[in-house]
Amino acid sequence: MGLFILRRFGVMLLTALCLTFIVFFLTNLYPNLEKLAKTQGNQRMSDEQVQTWLDNRGYSDPLLTKYGRWLGVMPGFTNTLNDGQFVGTCVRPGLTPEETPRFCGIVQGDWGYSTRFKADVDEIIWKRLGNTLYLMMWVMILMVPSALIVGVLAGMREGSRTDRSLSTFSILSTATPEYVSGVIFIAVFTSSTVGLKWFKGTATQAMEQPTFENFFLPVLTIALYGMGYIARMTRASMTEVMTAQYIRTARLKGVSFPNIVLKHALRNALIAPFTVIMLQFPWLLNGVVIVESLFNYKGFGWVLVEAAGNNDIQLLLAVSVVSVFVVLITQLISDIGYVYLNPRIRIS
Amino acid sequence: MEPLGTFEIIIRVLYQLSSVWIALLLLFALSIAFKRRLGLYGKLFDSPIGMIGFALVMFWVFVGIFGAMDMIITHDPLSQVSGMKNKVPGTPLAGAAEGDYAWYLLGGDNLARDVFSRVIKGAWIVVQIAPLATLFAFMVGITLGLPAGYYGGRLDTFLSFLANLILAFPVILLFYLLVTPEIVATGLPTMMAIVLFMFPIVFLCVLLNSRYRTQPAFRTPLLIGVLGFALWLYLALISENGYLVRSIPGLPSVLDPFDIPGGILVVFVSVVFVNSPTVFRIVRGLAMDIKTRDYVAAAQTRGEGPWYIMLWEILPNARGPLIVDFCLRIGYTTILLGTLGFFGLGLPPESPDWGSTINEGRKLLSIYLHPALPPALALLSLVLGLNLLADGLREESLKD
C-alpha cells in the first residue's frame, strides 16, 4: 500500500510537471507575450517596442530557461533599464536590488508575481481559493446527501413509479449544464419584472456575508448538475445489490423492507458512488468557473478567467498547478478509499 | 399592427416549424412501419423513453437542416432593426416593408435582432459540429485505444499516461489556453487539426486493409479510391488559400471547395481533443475485456493479423456500449460548445450559436428574460433528448 501511494505521488509529480510545461509553452507563444506586453506597457506599442519590452524583461529567453526560472532551478532574470528601473523575475515592489533573491521559483516556495493584480500569486490564490472552498463545501453538503437519497429511493424498487420519476429527474439534471440552469433560476427566482423575487441574482455580497438569499442559487446551480450523475450511479449500484442472494435470504427470513434497505443493502450499495463522488470534484471545478462568472462571485474560477484573459503567466501556472493537484489527489483518495470500503480488492 | 398574444405566438411558431413536423411525422411513420427490419434502430421504437429522446433529437436535427435552408427563419439572424431592441415576444416589426414577416415572434435581443431566427440558426451550428466532432473523437479514441488494450505493456502505459494528462486538465483552463485569437494566430490549432484529422484516414485504411488483405485484386483499387477521396477531403479541410500552415504549401485553391474559418476550426479541434481521451479509456477497457474471449483466441489460432482481430472481432463486439456512449457524448459536446460560447471563446461574437446567445442575454437577465431563455431551453431539450435516446438504446441493447 505504501509503495502504491508513493508510486502514485511520483506519477502525480510527473503529470504536474508535464502539464505546467504545456501551460508554460502555450502562455509563452509570441502572440500571447505580445498581448502581455501591450496590456502591461501600452496598447499602441510598435512591434520593435514590444520586442524591446520583452527582451528587457527576459521574456525572449529560451523556453526551457524560463521554465527553469519558474521552477527555481535557474537563477532569476534581472536587468536594469535605461531609466534606472530595476526589473526581473524575482523583483518585487519594496525590495531593493540587493535584497532581491537570486533564485525564486516553486522550489523556493515563491509562486511568482501576478501582472494582472500586482500582488503575490500565492496571496491571491489562497484568498480566492478560500471563497471557492466555502462554495464547494455548501455544494457538497447539498449535493451528496440529496443525490444519495434520490439514488437509493429509485434503486430500491426497480421499475416502480418512484423509480421512473426519480430517474427522469436525474436525467433532466444531468442534461442541464450550469449556464442553462443558472439562467433559468435567475429568470424564475430573481427577475425584477416577472419572477418570484425570492433570491438575489448576484452573489457579490456573499463573499463578505453569505446569506441564504444571496448564496443559495449558486450552490443549487452547481449541485444540480452533478447530482443527477451521482444519483444514477447510486441507483445502478443499488439495483444490483437488491438482486443479490443475501438480500433474498434476508427477505425470506422475514426481515422488514426498511431494515433490508438500511442495514443490508445500503452499505454495499454506497461503495460505487463513493468513487463517483470523489471523481466529481474536477467537474465541479468547471461548474465553479461558470457559476462564479454568472453570479459574479470572486473565487478561484474568477481568478482563472482573469488570469487567462490577461495572459498572466505565473498566476495561470499556479491556477493550473492547484487544479491539477485537486484532480490527482481526488483520484488518489478515491482509489485508496475504494480499497478500504471494498475488502475484496487488494492492491499488490 | 397589434402585438401578438401568447396563444397566437405559440400558433405562429408551430406554423413556422411546419416543415419540421412533416419531416418528423414521415420519419416516425416509416420507422414504425418497418421497425422489425431495422435492427437496433427499429428496436428503439419499442421503448417509449427512447422514442421521446429520438423525437427530441430529430426535431433539432430537422430544425437545423431546414433552418440552414432558410425555410423556418422569419428574419435575418444578424440584421438589426431599429426600434426592436429588447422588445418583448410578439412585438410587431417596426417599419416593416412589404414581404417582411410582420412580428418578432420571440422578441428582439439587446442588439435588436430576432431571437426566434437566431435560435433556429444556432441549431444548425450545433447539429453540424457536435456529431462530427464526436465522430472524430471516436476515431482517435478507437485507433489508439484498441492497440493499447490489445497489446498492453509499454504502449498501453505510455498512451494511458498521455490520456490521463489531458484528463487532468480542467476543461475550461484548456479552452482558455487553446481557444484564443492569439493561439489561432500561431497556427497551433491547424497543426493539431493536421494530427487529429489524420486518425480517421489511418482508421479507414487499416480497417479496409486488414479485411481485404488476402484479396489484393480487390483491395488495391478500393484502398486507392477510398484513400484518395479521404486525403482530398483531409487536405481541403485543413488547407486555406493553398497553404497548410503559413509556409507549408497545401492543396491548391482550385481543388479546395471549402474553407473552415479559423475560429470554427479551433473550436472543433479543441472539442475533439478534450473528448478523445475519455473515448480512449472506454475503448481500451472494452478491448482488454473482450480480448480474453474464445472467438478472439479462435481468430488468433486461425492466424489472423492483430489489426484484423482488433477491428473486425473486438470492435463489432464492443459496439453496444460504444453506441450508447456516442449519444451521451454528443450531448456532452453540445454542452461544451455552449460553454465555449458562454465564455465568448472561439466563435465570432455575433454568431447565433446558443452558448453565445445565452451569454449575451444573461447580461440583462433581471430585466429582459426573453433573449436568454429560448436558447437555454433549446440546449436543454437537445441534451435531454440525447440522454433519453442513450437510455433507450442501452435498455434495448441489453435485451438481446
TrEMBL record, chain A:
Q: Per UniProt, what is the membrane topology? A: Multi-pass membrane protein
Q: Which GO terms describe its cellular component?
A: plasma membrane
The main location class comes to membrane
* One matching Pfam family: BPD_transp_1
Q: Give all residue intervals belonging to the ABC transmembrane type-1 domain.
A: 129-334
GO terms, biological process: transmembrane transport
Keyword check for Transcription: no
For this UniProt record, the keywords arranged alphabetically read as follows:
Cell membrane, Membrane, Transmembrane, Transmembrane helix, Transport
- Tell me the compartments it is located in: Cell membrane
List all membrane-crossing ranges.
9-30, 135-156, 177-195, 215-232, 270-295, 315-341
- Family, per the entry? Belongs to the binding-protein-dependent transport system permease family.
Q: What is this protein called?
A: ABC transporter permease
Species name: Ruegeria pomeroyi
UniProtKB/TrEMBL annotation, chain B:
Q: What is this protein called?
A: ABC transporter permease
Membrane association type: Multi-pass membrane protein
Is this entry keyworded Membrane?
Answer: yes
| Keyword annotations of the record | Cell membrane, Membrane, Transmembrane, Transmembrane helix, Transport
Xref: SUPFAM superfamilies: MetI-like
Q: Which family does it belong to?
A: Belongs to the binding-protein-dependent transport system permease family.
The ABC transmembrane type-1 domain is annotated at 123-390
Q: Where are the transmembrane segments?
A: 13-34, 54-73, 123-146, 158-179, 191-210, 222-244, 264-283, 326-347, 367-390
Q: Which Gene3D superfamilies does the entry link to?
A: MetI-like
Question: What InterPro entries does the record point to?
Answer: BP-dependent_transpt_permease (IPR050366), MetI-like (IPR000515), MetI-like_sf (IPR035906)
- Gene Ontology CC: plasma membrane
What biological process terms from GO does the record include?
A: transmembrane transport
Name of one Pfam family that matches? BPD_transp_1
Subcellular location, record wording: Cell membrane
